[in-house]
Amino acid sequence: MSKKNRHRTAAAAADGENPRRPCPCGSGKRYKACHGAGDDVIVIRPFEGLAAEPDLVAMREFLPSAVAPLPLRTKGERPVRIASVLPGASAALVRPDGEILLGMQVQTRSGDLSADVARALRWAEQAEPGEALSVVGPGVGGSEVVRLQDLLIADAPLEPELFPDFAWWIAEGVDETSPEVAATLERANSVIMPTEAVAGPGVRAAYWVDTGAKAHLRWVRPEPEDALMAALARLHAAGALELSEGSRYAGAFRAHGLLVPVWDLDRELHAKEWAEPAAAFAKRLAQALADETPLTTQERGARDAIAGKQVTLR
Hints:
Layout: H1 3-6, E1 7-8, H2 11-14, E2 42-43, H3 53-61, E3 66-69, E4 80-83, E5 92-94, E6 100-103, H4 113-126, E7 132-133, H5 148-151, E8 161-162, H6 179-189, E9 195-197, E10 206-210, E11 215-219, H7 225-237, E12 247-255, E13 258-265, H8 275-290, H9 297-307
Parallel strand pairs: 4-6
Antiparallel strand pairs: 1-2, 3-4, 3-8, 5-6, 5-7, 9-10, 10-11, 11-13, 12-13
Helix pairs in contact: 7-8, 7-9
């Protein structure tokens, strides 16, 4: 991907970019609420080159309560885990026992999420136990520009652990029955949508989500968008785009350079019951991705049809 296509400057806002329009990073957020607050270039695909990319995107965008060990190349004295969201939407905090927690769902102050997380880690490595970093951006963690690609084992995926609530926020020794702590947990827990990972052969970064009105499968895909859209079009034309009976392809959304297909699911079925259909779909998709023949007229029509389906997260 060329530098021109990967980056857009924040100067676009100064040249008349509407801050209420969708951010060009593909997150689906408004420009003002995403990268519009920064003064750096926008990296469209910030986690490119990492096997952990799909799960990092999921943790940033829609996993409500999840934590994963960070696969660092060099282990420091303090254990490091990355989390979907931390108390107060903090960018980082250091537990009383020294453990470092890094937050993904934070207010953005630069155009490079990868560098933001790396800056937060550098800050936490020097912070005292009990300290928290509310916002990360240029200048935090030192002047040297470091990105997650410089720190992580490139071929090591994340292994997020999902929780039904935010009880893991409470450090050992803290009284979770105190009114302030209990109120904080109650507020945070009230907005959680039940979410579970769907795993199987060829299946990664696929998550079952119950929104209350519907159940969905959200599957973060690592392939380039053009290649993925062509493969989905082949499956659609062949009548093989659904996961199985009780599912319907709803569309897709873009998030940080990746495409996330979404299926509506039968809410009566448990999340684990979608593992086998997802694995079967993964096999069909792999075959479609390997097909390099030009799309037929029918397949091109199918591609146009699914390209018009945009999903809004709720």
